[in-house]
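ok so I'm stuck.
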Amino acid sequence: MNFNPEFTLASFHFFNLSYVQVFLRGILSLLLLLAFSTESRGKDDPSATQPPPDQYFAGIVTALSDTSVTITRTNLGKSTVRTFIITSETVIQGGKPKLKTKVTVQWVKGDDGDRAVKIILRAAAPPAPKKQ
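replied:
not stuck anymore, here's the structure
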């Protein structure tokens, strides 16, 4: 019983799946090739391409000399003490550091120890206004 006499199995293009299968296999292999090529590019040495992140340490100056500064910070009851080397390349912003002043030190790791790149003095908090 054929309701459509013009329809034949050869005229129905869905059964020509061999072309579709070849096309899909080609697309899949191309995608896999691209995935592996980008993965291999991502495995380059990241330390050579990216500079090290900036490292900061903030606290109160507890010892100061011409060649080094010692900073102490207390966080949740734990005290951390760090000593940084001061060189001629060290930039000091906000004046000359003194004992018991708050500072932030940008530093880099060196062969001799941690070297201060920049020392930023923090101003003391302004006094609270008096209520009248």
